[in-house]
Amino acid sequence: FHISNSEEFKKMKKKKGQVAMESLMVYGIALLIVALAIGALIYFGVLDLGGMLPDKCDIKGGTFTCKEYAVFGDGNIQMEIQNSYGKTVTVSKVQINPEEDSVGILSATDCVAAETDVTIANGNTGLFKIPDSCADLEEFVGKKIRGEIAITWNTAGSQITKTSYGSLQATVSE
User: Phi then psi for 5, rounded to 5 degrees?
Assistant: First the structure.
């Protein structure tokens, strides 16, 4: 009697283990299908995760701060940059380069602000306008663009030129 119970117990335990493995496989396959569906939606552009990211303008190093910025569908890009260096600086060039993965968003040529040799006292801001000849963004109204910022500058009275880098991610407005 005891032996037969032991054999039945082994069979029941084996069946329970098989049911558990089958359940795990079903859930695993279901998760895999959901992940593949989401991946396909992102790949084909139906689901745009980049649009969920916030707008930001970030200049590294603490020398400058983006106070305000705007990107317009006609291609104009405006940036108000604050001097946080501690001394008066002269900005000789503000340039926005397209990021490699920004498909068709900015033109292949680099976008340079029309303003040159702008002197900004510590704590003050300077307005830089990148002309509409740089990019045609009409088809991207309501979408995000990304670019890399390069600001070429020197302190007042110095001949040594420095460059600060940053990034811009903004929604194109009309």
Answer: -65, -40
